Amino acid sequence: MADIISGANLSDEDAVALVELMFFAYRDFVADPDGILEGLGFGRAHHRVLHFVGRDPGMTVAQLLDILRITKQSLSRVLKDLIEKGYIYQKAGEEDRRQRLLHLSEKGEALWKDLAAPQMRRFRRAMTELEQGNAQLYRALLLQMINPENREAADAWISRARRKAP
Protein backbone atom coordinates (compact mmCIF):
# COMPACT_ATOMS: atom_id res chain seq x y z
CA MET A 1 0.00 0.00 0.00
CA ALA A 2 1.23 3.48 -0.79
CA ASP A 3 2.13 5.86 2.02
CA ILE A 4 -1.30 7.40 2.49
CA ILE A 5 -0.24 9.90 5.13
CA SER A 6 1.77 12.10 2.82
CA GLY A 7 0.75 15.55 3.96
CA ALA A 8 -1.97 18.03 3.21
CA ASN A 9 -1.75 17.50 -0.55
CA LEU A 10 -3.31 14.05 -0.71
CA SER A 11 -3.96 12.61 -4.11
CA ASP A 12 -7.46 11.35 -4.81
CA GLU A 13 -6.13 7.79 -4.59
CA ASP A 14 -4.62 8.43 -1.15
CA ALA A 15 -7.74 10.23 0.08
CA VAL A 16 -9.94 7.32 -1.06
CA ALA A 17 -7.60 4.89 0.70
CA LEU A 18 -7.99 6.88 3.93
CA VAL A 19 -11.77 6.82 3.55
CA GLU A 20 -11.63 3.05 3.09
CA LEU A 21 -9.38 2.63 6.12
CA MET A 22 -11.85 4.66 8.16
CA PHE A 23 -14.68 2.36 7.05
CA PHE A 24 -12.68 -0.77 7.95
CA ALA A 25 -11.50 0.70 11.27
CA TYR A 26 -15.04 1.69 12.24
CA ARG A 27 -16.39 -1.73 11.25
CA ASP A 28 -13.94 -3.46 13.56
CA PHE A 29 -14.16 -0.78 16.28
CA VAL A 30 -17.90 -1.36 16.74
CA ALA A 31 -17.90 -5.13 16.21
CA ASP A 32 -17.22 -6.16 19.83
CA PRO A 33 -19.81 -3.83 21.39
CA ASP A 34 -22.31 -4.77 18.67
CA GLY A 35 -22.10 -8.40 19.74
CA ILE A 36 -22.78 -7.51 23.37
CA LEU A 37 -25.63 -5.17 22.42
CA GLU A 38 -27.24 -7.71 20.09
CA GLY A 39 -27.56 -10.18 22.95
CA LEU A 40 -29.52 -7.55 24.89
CA GLY A 41 -31.74 -6.51 22.00
CA PHE A 42 -29.96 -3.15 21.74
CA GLY A 43 -28.21 -1.38 18.88
CA ARG A 44 -25.58 1.29 18.31
CA ALA A 45 -27.92 4.12 19.32
CA HIS A 46 -28.23 2.49 22.75
CA HIS A 47 -24.44 2.28 22.94
CA ARG A 48 -24.03 5.97 22.16
CA VAL A 49 -26.58 6.97 24.80
CA LEU A 50 -24.93 4.76 27.42
CA HIS A 51 -21.52 6.18 26.53
CA PHE A 52 -22.39 9.85 26.76
CA VAL A 53 -24.58 9.50 29.86
CA GLY A 54 -21.77 7.49 31.45
CA ARG A 55 -19.25 10.19 30.63
CA ASP A 56 -21.47 13.03 31.85
CA PRO A 57 -23.86 11.81 34.56
CA GLY A 58 -26.72 14.22 35.10
CA MET A 59 -26.70 15.51 31.56
CA THR A 60 -30.03 16.73 30.24
CA VAL A 61 -31.98 15.18 27.42
CA ALA A 62 -31.41 18.41 25.47
CA GLN A 63 -27.64 18.09 25.89
CA LEU A 64 -27.76 14.49 24.72
CA LEU A 65 -29.85 15.45 21.68
CA ASP A 66 -27.29 18.13 20.82
CA ILE A 67 -24.42 15.64 20.98
CA LEU A 68 -26.10 12.79 19.12
CA ARG A 69 -27.87 14.93 16.52
CA ILE A 70 -30.82 12.59 16.35
CA THR A 71 -34.52 13.32 16.53
CA LYS A 72 -36.34 13.55 19.84
CA GLN A 73 -38.47 10.64 18.68
CA SER A 74 -35.42 8.42 18.05
CA LEU A 75 -33.88 9.30 21.40
CA SER A 76 -37.19 8.74 23.16
CA ARG A 77 -37.41 5.17 21.84
CA VAL A 78 -33.84 4.36 22.87
CA LEU A 79 -34.16 5.99 26.30
CA LYS A 80 -37.43 4.14 26.90
CA ASP A 81 -35.66 0.83 26.23
CA LEU A 82 -32.75 1.67 28.51
CA ILE A 83 -34.97 2.96 31.32
CA GLU A 84 -37.41 0.04 31.15
CA LYS A 85 -34.55 -2.46 31.30
CA GLY A 86 -32.93 -0.66 34.23
CA TYR A 87 -29.78 0.72 32.61
CA ILE A 88 -30.63 4.41 32.91
CA TYR A 89 -32.73 6.41 35.34
CA GLN A 90 -33.96 9.98 35.23
CA LYS A 91 -34.08 12.61 37.95
CA ALA A 92 -35.82 15.94 37.83
CA GLY A 93 -33.51 18.95 37.77
CA GLU A 94 -33.06 20.72 41.09
CA GLU A 95 -33.44 24.21 39.63
CA ASP A 96 -35.86 23.32 36.85
CA ARG A 97 -38.07 20.37 37.75
CA ARG A 98 -39.05 20.00 34.07
CA GLN A 99 -35.50 18.97 33.19
CA ARG A 100 -34.80 15.27 32.98
CA LEU A 101 -31.28 14.54 34.18
CA LEU A 102 -29.93 11.21 32.97
CA HIS A 103 -27.83 8.80 35.03
CA LEU A 104 -26.58 5.24 34.62
CA SER A 105 -27.79 2.70 37.13
CA GLU A 106 -25.29 0.18 38.52
CA LYS A 107 -26.42 -2.18 35.77
CA GLY A 108 -25.93 0.59 33.18
CA GLU A 109 -22.50 1.40 34.55
CA ALA A 110 -21.45 -2.24 34.23
CA LEU A 111 -22.73 -2.45 30.64
CA TRP A 112 -21.04 0.83 29.73
CA LYS A 113 -17.73 -0.53 31.00
CA ASP A 114 -18.23 -3.84 29.15
CA LEU A 115 -18.91 -1.98 25.90
CA ALA A 116 -15.98 0.39 26.27
CA ALA A 117 -13.38 -2.18 27.32
CA PRO A 118 -12.72 -3.77 23.90
CA GLN A 119 -12.67 -0.37 22.22
CA MET A 120 -10.16 0.97 24.74
CA ARG A 121 -8.03 -2.15 24.28
CA ARG A 122 -8.13 -1.59 20.51
CA PHE A 123 -6.90 2.00 20.89
CA ARG A 124 -4.22 1.00 23.40
CA ARG A 125 -2.97 -1.77 21.12
CA ALA A 126 -2.92 0.56 18.12
CA MET A 127 -1.06 3.28 19.99
CA THR A 128 1.44 0.76 21.36
CA GLU A 129 2.22 -0.34 17.82
CA LEU A 130 2.77 3.24 16.69
CA GLU A 131 5.72 5.36 17.66
CA GLN A 132 5.45 7.00 21.07
CA GLY A 133 4.30 10.61 20.93
CA ASN A 134 1.91 10.06 18.05
CA ALA A 135 -1.19 9.93 20.26
CA GLN A 136 -1.57 13.71 20.16
CA LEU A 137 -1.08 13.72 16.39
CA TYR A 138 -3.85 11.16 15.89
CA ARG A 139 -6.11 12.96 18.35
CA ALA A 140 -5.55 16.13 16.35
CA LEU A 141 -6.29 14.26 13.10
CA LEU A 142 -9.60 12.96 14.45
CA LEU A 143 -10.49 16.40 15.75
CA GLN A 144 -9.85 17.83 12.30
CA MET A 145 -12.27 15.26 10.85
CA ILE A 146 -15.09 17.03 12.72
CA ASN A 147 -16.85 19.84 10.86
CA PRO A 148 -15.06 23.13 11.62
CA GLU A 149 -18.13 24.68 13.24
CA ASN A 150 -18.42 21.71 15.64
CA ARG A 151 -14.76 21.19 16.57
CA GLU A 152 -14.56 23.60 19.47
CA ALA A 153 -17.70 22.22 21.11
CA ALA A 154 -16.52 18.61 20.70
CA ASP A 155 -13.09 19.42 22.13
CA ALA A 156 -14.64 21.34 25.03
CA TRP A 157 -17.02 18.47 25.78
CA ILE A 158 -14.19 15.97 25.89
CA SER A 159 -12.15 18.28 28.11
CA ARG A 160 -14.95 18.83 30.60
CA ALA A 161 -16.39 15.31 30.72
CA ARG A 162 -16.48 14.41 34.37
CA ARG A 163 -15.17 10.89 34.04
CA LYS A 164 -11.80 9.84 32.80
CA ALA A 165 -12.69 6.31 31.69
CA PRO A 166 -15.44 3.75 32.04
Write up what this structure looks like.
- By secondary structure, the chain is mostly helical.
- The chain has helices at residues 12-40, 44-55, 61-68, 72-84, 106-129, 135-145, 148-160, and strands spanning 59-60, 88-92, 100-104.
- Strands 1-3-2 form a three-stranded antiparallel beta sheet.
- Helix 1 (12-40) runs antiparallel to helix 5, helix 2 crosses helix 4 and helix 2 packs across helix 5 (106-129).
- The two termini are 36 Å apart.
- The model is unreliable at 1-6 (pLDDT under 50).
Shape: globular
Main beta-sheet annotation: 3 strands, antiparallel
Strand tally, please?
3
How many alpha or pi helices? 7
Q: What share of the residues does DSSP label as strand, in percent?
A: 5-15%
How large is the radius of gyration? Answer: 18 Å
Could you state the order of secondary-structure elements as H and E? HHEHHEEHHH
**Which stretches are poorly predicted, pLDDT < 50 over at least 5 residues?**
1-6
- Which structural class do the helices and strands define? mainly alpha
Mean pLDDT: 86
Helix percent band:
55-70%
What distance lies between the first and last C-alpha atoms, to the nearest angstrom?
A: 36 Å
Give the strand order, joined by hyphens, for the main sheet: 1-3-2
